[in-house]
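Just curious. Protein, please.
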Amino acid sequence: MSAFDPLPATVGPGGEPGADAAEPEPVVDEPGTVYHGRRRVDRPAGRRRVPPAAVATVLAAAVVVAAGIAWLSSSDGSQARDPGVFAGGDVTATATGAPAASASAVTTPAASAPAPSPSVSPSAAASPAAFGPVAYEAEASGNTLLGQAAVVSLSGASGGRAVRNIGNGAGAKKDGGLRFNAVTVPEAGTYTLTFYYAQLVGPRADRVVVTVAGGGAVTAGVAGGADCCASRSVSVRLRAGANAVTFGNPDGPAPAIDRIVVRRA
């Protein structure tokens, strides 16, 4: 029997329709078509009966979504957060009263390897410190005039003055000397000492003896004239620190001294 065949009616014992015959259930043949007994009723499309289970599922999903929206609203940064809540990149401390620390603000510095120590070449480490030249004036107050030595004016001298009557001169002008008390160098070694001199009126000098305290004496020949100033250089051994350097001549006169200059040899 097809869906379009009429359904048989319920009959009683005498062949008449039974009084207790029940109305047949509607038969759905296709969407929008319903049969009530022998009558065909067209139901508008889309008006189907929704199963109760589907309705319950939709309602449950709606409740979950509403609860999520409410939770997000309560997690706004302007409201107080419960301990242990992680929201918006901020971590609230679990201890009561402890301030919240921003996860983005916590930065672990990268460990950097220690910088290598600068290498020092042996030659640079062993090289002495730069020194000189250093000038000392003969008439400076820190020097010592020995015997008949005296400070006199001298045209052309660096300070306008010089020390004369040095060495073993004639008569009352003998046995004079000039001592520089503080010729200072950074370290012991050989240095070049240049002295500037002039031949003044009197016996002409041909030499001068330069003596370093504790370092021996050096005799230097001199020439020149009365004009200031000629110069002569000698090598001397000096100790680190201050040194006493004396000019004299036990065997005859010595020239007048204007100044000395010390530099590394």
About this structure: Residues 155 and 249 are 24 Å apart (CA to CA). The helical segments are 52-74, 122-126. The two ends are 136 Å apart (CA to CA).
